[in-house]
Amino acid sequence: MPNKVCVLGAGSTRYGKLNENVVELALDASKEAITSAGITPKEIQSGYISNVFGVSDKQVHMAPVIMSNLGIPYTPGLTIESACGSGSVMLREAFANVAAGFYDCVLAVGVEKITQVGTVQSTTLFSYCSDFFYEGGNGASFPGLFASIARAYLTRYKATEEDLAYVAVKNHENGILNPKAHVRKKITIEDVMQSPVVASPLKLYDCCPFSDGASALILCSEEFAKKKGKSYVEIIGSGRGASPAAVQSREDITIIPSTVNAARQAYEMAKITPKDVDFAEVHDCFTIAEVIDCEDLGFFKKGEAAEAIRSGATRRIGEIPINPSGGLKSKGHPIGATGIGQVVEVFEQFTGKAGDRTIQDAQIALTHNFGATGASAAVHIFKKVN
Amino acid sequence: MSESRDPNQITNRRSKFIEAASRGKILANKCAKCNHSTLETVYFCEKCSSDVFTIEEYAGLGNVVTFTIQSVAPEGFTDAGLYAWVVFKVDDAPFNVSGFLKDTHTPSELPIGSKVRVTGFDEKHGLLLERV
Hints:
The structure holds 2 protein chains of 2 kinds.
Chain A: E1 5-12, H1 22-37, E2 46-50, H2 62-69, E3 77-80, H3 86-99, E4 105-112, H4 119-127, H5 142-157, H6 161-175, H7 189-194, E5 197-200, E6 202-203, E7 213-221, H8 222-228, E8 233-242, H9 257-270, E9 279-281, H10 287-296, H11 305-311, H12 327-330, H13 338-350, E10 364-371, E11 376-384
Parallel strand pairs in A: 2-3, 2-4, 9-10
Antiparallel strand pairs in A: 1-7, 1-8, 4-7, 5-6, 8-11, 10-11
Chain B: E1 2-4, H1 13-22, E2 25-31, E3 37-39, E4 53-59, E5 61-70, E6 83-90, E7 96-101, E8 115-122, E9 126-131
């Protein structure tokens, strides 16, 4: 049985089109997390950094640069890449090392800086996260890959493009309440339906934005957390999964196996079922992704999530609130940071810092984040510590 | 059509896949141990981990499983006009492949289940398809 692992501090930059470079963003978020935890940098025993496109902002081998600028140049760190799932995959590694007792206190910071290269180049760089020989190399962008998944889902389950629009409207409704969200704008079903087609059947408002940003956490042992006397959150479940890299190789295109397997592991470790989860931050890079996530995570039966979302079940006052932060769709998607930013939302929810986004009486939360079209994924479950 | 092969002689699987696609065919591996068939580019059998395969060549025909029409194209495809990226089930094979189908403007032009055929492979657009 692993040692208990806690989130003692959390910090995040605003998400959006930002002026700071990739290192500055990571440092800003890290400093906020260190302050939030009430520790000094010298208490950090290792750093975990998640990032995908550092090369586009002229910085790879990022961990030593970040640790040096935090004033702890002799503290080891490493950088982890798993496309859009980099943050949660990195979190899993940080979690495992604290749980195993190698470290008592670590920094986990995710960062991305991409908007400076423009939309066409960003679209191209993202396509390198696909199984490029079969996907990007044949003309599929990421919106295109998820559009093909959407068409398969809508065809099989008789769901509609308007059903997908409800995801976007709900997440923007939440994101308006998040001061760090990228797109703080109320939208309507009509806005989504009338937005330009990017890759049919997905339209502009079915897609998350390209974002810059960073999010950071301080993870520690329970003993370390108790000594600090600050509010903290316990990680009670962690799971990882994988899927065939190419969409064409999935037995069922409407299921993401990595999510299913990661969730099963996390639920087993936490000794809970999906019904025990009070809210979740899930990977809604495109509206169809949130629909499928909700089924793969066990919140709704296969083929029933679209109707449930349309009925309001995933709104903040619904039976299972999804993405109270605004999700990738509204809060934004700085891909190296996203999985960590989800946990920042959980930390803020459980430590009284979520303001009007607060999910009342929540005790258990789940985060879900995947890379590419779900080729890699991680799921984590958190408990509020009173 | 199939033939036995010494795995040590294979130096570039993707090149072989591309060469077959250029002739309108899909190249696959059939596991010599468990008969599981996968695309040529796989190095070990997913079912039994054997690396001994027999080459299989399928007629590049299949039925559309799903697709999208790319209105916003990535670099290298911005001069292609409206096109579809298509996942299709290869006839007589237990797997899907995906490719590029030019001149596709509306979803009604490509119903799920409709027939497509491999016409070639080029460096710019990958596996080329046409409607049958």
